[in-house]
């Protein structure tokens, strides 16, 4: 049994050695064939050849992605085709545009000759990409007025603006392709997306261009200062005396009430001032509701720092003798 195992082991080693020899022979033969084939002429192939556009980048900007290659058919020596197929040591073909905003395409016939010259010693058989399309704009500069979208600002309940919204600086300087800047109009509207605001606002806000314009437009400054004051309206109440006006002698109230309670909200800055102010509840017979014979309490000359006024009770039934 041990003799068989020794023999079988030797046989396996010999087979492995033979396989390596065969593999090396195949690799050597293939390499020789490839090298021999590449030395021959009159091959043809289709390659993607790199291109680049040359233009005055200080005056013009592409507003769409530019083509980066063209499909061409070439023939020549195998080594030359091999290098061009895999772009080994191949410089992009430069296409010069003097006034790129005046045209949006270029026919292959317009650059075929110059392309053929740089491909030597390879021969250009055909340009398969017949038309190169592009889109350029002149670069312009402008100033845009900055505005705040107040719908994106939400004050806390029972709070109000106590001042105008102030923006500093009031304008932004922008630079970029004409069509993109024209799309902005004459102003730049910023959304702050702030909610529950209950105190004065003073923040530096980053200016963000719309996402589709960010690659094209330069602007300054990058931030603006937004400020405004906020005031809270606090709950309060006062007991008001009732005064009757223009009542005939035969008309009285259906119930005997000498005062009413006025509930309100007051500007927090005016609380102490309001303590010294007295109000009256007026029942004016001339303002009665003739259909149901009722009259409603009126409070005259209420200051503008009082909001949300409610009076209990606020309506009285009239009684006629």
Put the structure in a nutshell.
With 321 residues, the chain is α+β, with helices and mostly antiparallel strands. It is built from 5 helices and 24 strands.
Describe the structure.
The protein has 321 residues and is an alpha+beta fold. It contains 5 helices and 24 strands. The strands form 7 sheets. Strands 2, 8, 12, 13 and 16 form a 5-stranded mixed sheet that branches. It is rod-shaped and about 125 Å long. Residues 26-40 have low confidence and may be disordered.
Shape: rod-shaped
C-alpha termini separation? 139 Å
What is the number of beta strands? 24
List the secondary-structure elements in sequence, H or E: HEEEHEEHEEEEEEEHEEEEEEEEHEEEE
What integer value in Å does the Rg equal?
44 Å
Report the structural category: alpha+beta
- Low-pLDDT windows of residues: 26-40
SSE blueprint and pairings:
Layout: H1 2-38, E1 43-54, E2 60-62, E3 69-76, H2 78-85, E4 93-96, E5 105-107, H3 112-119, E6 123-127, E7 131-133, E8 136-148, E9 153-155, E10 159-161, E11 166-168, E12 171-177, H4 178-183, E13 187-190, E14 194-197, E15 201-206, E16 218-220, E17 223-228, E18 230-245, E19 251-253, E20 259-267, H5 271-275, E21 280-284, E22 294-296, E23 306-312, E24 315-320
Parallel strand pairs: 1-4, 8-13, 9-14, 18-21
Antiparallel strand pairs: 1-3, 2-8, 3-6, 5-7, 8-12, 10-18, 11-17, 12-16, 15-17, 18-20, 19-24, 20-23, 22-24
